[in-house]
Amino acid sequence: MKLPSLSIGHLTARIPLIQGGMSIRVSTSSLAVPVAECGGIGVIGGSGIPAEELQDDIRTAKKATDGIIAVNVMYAMKNFYDLVIASIEAGVDMIITGAGFSRDIFKIGRAHNIPIAMIVSSPTLGRLAEKLGASAVIVEAKEAGGHLGTDQPLRTIFPPIRDVVKSVPLIAAGGITNGYEMAEMMDAYGADGIQIASRFVLSEECDVSDEFKQAYLRAEKDDIVLTTSPVGLPGRALRTPFVQALADGVSFASKSCKHLCLKKCDHHYCINERLNASRQGDLQEGLFFSGENTYKMKAILPVAEIFRQFVSQAESVYRENRGFSPPSQSA
């Protein structure tokens, strides 16, 4: 059966798939544009880069596609609101946010007619996001890469959030690696769509170095671990010498900070510098955020082929969408 489209606010994606927004220049227009062209929602990672650079990348993306381009900005960023407004001024279609909870973001969304998608990991925050005006809620579980808001798996936390979020689309995120799992989340759990990130690192279009991608391809299950982050949340990443040193208690604290990027930072290392190092392929010093199931992925593919596989696999077993249905336009 054909997959349904995904309507978020006034936007409609032909394929119910959001590409996760990976920051520090992992998810750029180079990745977001082909995702949007394939009918999904392409997402630029907006955290940890200058607002002017973000605006330039959004404008590049909007010139290259008529598809949906979103930006993901962590609430933990000190210049969160500046990045949000800069994104809106540059013409972005949607804002996705997490790593903290902003109430004011929904007022900004309404003022500019920009849909806001909130990433949550609990029924309480899901219900609150819906009440305050979220156009979509993304349920992100422990299987996700990067910063985590829960230690519970997706199939455990999704049902109770589905029970309380009724009026807007609910998106499943964390550990989804193929179209069969996509159909499972939509059929059995009532998801309106999915968000995937790590799979798109292993795309030809992703801007990270080949060394980054090869690290993903070499990863075994035990190589993907939890680590600490200056943001104040645990993070899921590859076990590199840097991550192992953190686990062994080595301190990388600095007396000064060049970036001053976070609202609250414990300064036991600079996350901006470590993520930049990983993007450039520094296997010794980089922080390589990674989903729990990255070890299952064994090929670098074009974005179009990733979509083809997800859609064909999902549609071969998909039965019906039991989640949110937008009201009829003729009603």
From TrEMBL:
SUPFAM superfamilies: Inosine monophosphate dehydrogenase (IMPDH). The keyword Flavoprotein applies. Gene3D superfamilies: Aldolase class I. InterPro entries: Aldolase_TIM (IPR013785), NMO (IPR004136). One of its GO terms (molecular function) is nitronate monooxygenase activity. Keywords: Dioxygenase, Flavoprotein, FMN, Oxidoreductase. This is NAD(P)H-dependent flavin oxidoreductase YrpB, nitropropane dioxygenase family. It comes from Desulfofustis glycolicus DSM 9705. The lineage of its organism: Bacteria, Pseudomonadati, Thermodesulfobacteriota, Desulfobulbia, Desulfobulbales.
